Amino acid sequence: MKKIVVMASLLLAGFNLFAQQQQKEDAATFAKEIQQPGVQVFDVRTAGEYNSGHLANALQADYNRQDEFLERVKYLNKEKPVYVYCLGGGRSAKAVDWMRKNGFTNVVELEGGINAWKQAGLPVEGVGISKAQLSMDAYKSSIMKGWVLTDVGAAWCPPCRQMEPVLASLLAKHKNLKLVKVDGGNDTEVMKQINALKLPTFIMYKDGVEKGRITGVVSQETLEAMMK
Description:
The protein has 2 domains: 2-119, Oxidized Rhodanese, domain 1, CATH 3.40.250; 136-225, Glutaredoxin (3-Layer(aba) Sandwich), CATH 3.40.30.10. With 228 residues, the chain is of the alpha/beta class. The chain is elongated. The strands form 2 sheets. Strands 1-5-4-2-3 form a 5-stranded parallel beta sheet. The protein has a 4-stranded mixed beta sheet with strand order 7-6-8-9. Helices cover 41% and strands 19% of the residues.
């Protein structure tokens, strides 16, 4: 009897693993399910591909740049569903396989990638949108008076999004602190000039003089320490 129970458990575990490995969805199903609360949409194409059109609220990490992918994927919630896509399915399949092997409990792949999404007539965001780069002169002017915190980040960057409530709390507490945003997907010249190429990067200034900088996800207290 005991052997039967063990065998049944192994068969069930094997079935569950197989089911997870086969978890691909067509564009229509994928589109419906990403509307659920708590779903994380993950684009594993390049930043350039992302900027040419992406799914609403998608986070981004280039799977082919393993340092970038491994850095950003760790800020996704492993306990919440992650819906992954690329251009045609090749990179997303590899990304999904890695995620399942590294503790993500519910990962869904868009079959056929964003190509299949477009063929189904579903909407994408960011197409044809061009944004002027922040000039270095404008940036310098923005940091010259009082306490200023520069946030070099992007809405599609997982650790940047994780920092949003921390920054909101910091600004609510310190009314004299001004926040200046540098778009990590657009303001490349300013990023180069201030040597801030990792997202997110935070730089604290007092009257135009740098008082400290830090990268990655940090606490409010760590940011406040740069004001002392």
